[in-house]
């Protein structure tokens, strides 16, 4: 009887040990990484084998058991063909999932792609940055205010943001954790390249960049169709040459920092951006213009137009006659409603 009890205890002990070993084995298979961080960087260089990568991770102390992992891979005949690249692996993946990620080259990008639409001002660009998780709105705006102004920008004292209009609207890919200063470096560099290319393409020297981009930014806000851009540019220059006020709603909206329908009271707001009350151009651009509007500002159509009015929610009606303008304004305003 005593021998039977001893034997039973021995069996229990052996089974417990086997169970413990099995548990540890399964745990190592299901959760091979022991890193505390959520993501583990894994570098696969050209010519690296899967087992070399595992040995490297073992040396760095981020996997639990190198030999069990290799044994499992061989026993299960997992695909050991892996693709070079920089990976960010979640620390809760299984061995099978880990190998599949390297097999398929599922690299997790440490960057984000965003598109800045034409006609967005700095405040709206800051919103995109914030919503994308690249940088908070407040941090981005702070960077805009503190940034060392490039020599090609001759900002007036009354501008809201010295960089307004020069953050070129385009699709960018920014690294996560990038600073506001670096974002601005990239966007301003893109702007410089665009201006350089336009100058070469048009075979023109751009003397007054501040005026050009200011006009282009207003065109960007006013024009609805491509063929109206150069005509609208001609209206602006014709009015400026005649000493007339520009009287552009878009500049008032910028002054108000709002996008509502304007009232007569709004047109009287005191602001250096209110072209209903000031003569000449506002102190700076009111948004980031695209290439087409910059070209239109550089190459206005040769007209005598000094008035325009929105005709059908897209195209504008142009004239040099004030009575015709009032008549068209009354007619098209009723049609658009």
CA gyration radius, whole angstroms: 32 Å
How do the SSEs run, as a string of H and E? Answer: HEHHEHEHHEHHHHHEEH
Q: Uncertain spans, ≥5 residues at pLDDT below 50?
A: 6-23
| Backbone structural class | mainly alpha
What's the arrangement of strands in the largest beta sheet? Answer: 1-2
Strand content: 5-15%
> Tell me about the biggest sheet?
2 strands, antiparallel
Average pLDDT over all residues: 86
Number of domains: 3
Shape: elongated
Terminus-to-terminus distance:
102 Å
- Number of distinct helices: 12
Please estimate the helix content.
Answer: 40-55%
What is the total tally of β strands? 6
Q: If you had to describe this structure to a student in words, what would you say it looks like?
A:
Strand 5 (307-310) and strand 6 form a beta hairpin. This protein starts with a helix and ends with a helix. The radius of gyration is 32 Å and the shape is elongated. The model is unreliable at 6-23 (pLDDT under 50). A two-stranded antiparallel sheet has the order 1-2. It has a two-stranded antiparallel sheet with strand order 3-4. The chain has a two-stranded antiparallel ribbon with strand order 5-6. It has helices spanning 2-30, 50-59, 66-75, 95-104, 122-132, 137-146, 180-202, 209-222, 226-241, 249-256, 291-298, 322-336, and strands at residues 39-44, 85-90, 111-115, 171-175, 307-310, 316-319. The chain has 337 residues and is mostly helical. The chain folds into three domains: 11-104, Dna Ligase, domain 1 (2-Layer Sandwich), CATH 3.30.1490.480; 112-202, no CATH class; 209-336, no CATH class. The protein is built from twelve helices and six strands. 27% of the residues are buried.
């Amino acid at each position: 009887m005593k021998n039977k009890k001893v034997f039973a205890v021995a069996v229990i002990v052996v089974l417990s040990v086997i169970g413990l070993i099995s548990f540890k084995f399964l745990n190592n298979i299901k959760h091979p990484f022991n890193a505390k961080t959520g993501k583990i960087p894994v570098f696969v260089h050209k010519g690296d084998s899967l087992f070399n990568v595992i040995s490297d991770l073992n040396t760095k102390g981020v996997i639990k058991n190198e030999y069990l992992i290799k044994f499992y891979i061989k026993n299960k005949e997992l695909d050991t063909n892996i693709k070079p690249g920089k990976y960010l692996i979640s620390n809760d993946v299984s061995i099978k999932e880990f190998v599949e990620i390297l097999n398929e080259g599922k690299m997790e990008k440490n960057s984000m792609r965003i598109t800045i639409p034409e006609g967005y001002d700095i405040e709206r660009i800051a919103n995109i940055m914030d919503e994308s998780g690249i940088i908070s709105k407040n941090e981005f705006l702070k960077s805009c205010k503190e940034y060392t102004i490039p020599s090609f920008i001759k900002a007036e004292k009354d501008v809201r943001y010295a960089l307004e209009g020069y953050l070129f609207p385009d699709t960018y890919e920014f690294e996560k954790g990038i600073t506001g200063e670096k974002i601005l470096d990239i966007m301003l560099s893109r702007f410089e390249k665009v201006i350089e290319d336009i100058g070469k393409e048009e075979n023109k020297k751009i003397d007054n960049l501040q005026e050009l981009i200011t006009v282009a930014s207003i065109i960007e806000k006013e024009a609805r169709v491509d063929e109206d851009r150069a005509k609208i540019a001609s209206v602006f220059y014709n009015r400026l040459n005649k000493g007339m006020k520009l009287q552009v709603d878009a500049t008032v909206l910028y002054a108000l920092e709002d996008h509502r329908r304007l009232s007569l009271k709004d047109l009287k707001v005191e602001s250096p951006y209110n072209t209903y009350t000031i003569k000449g151009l506002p102190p700076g651009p009111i948004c980031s213009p695209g290439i087409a509007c910059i070209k239109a500002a550089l190459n206005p159509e040769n007209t005598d137009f000094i008035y325009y009015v929105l005709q059908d929610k897209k195209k504008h009606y142009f004239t040099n006659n004030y009575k015709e303008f009032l008549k068209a304004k009354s007619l098209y305003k009723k049609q658009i409603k």
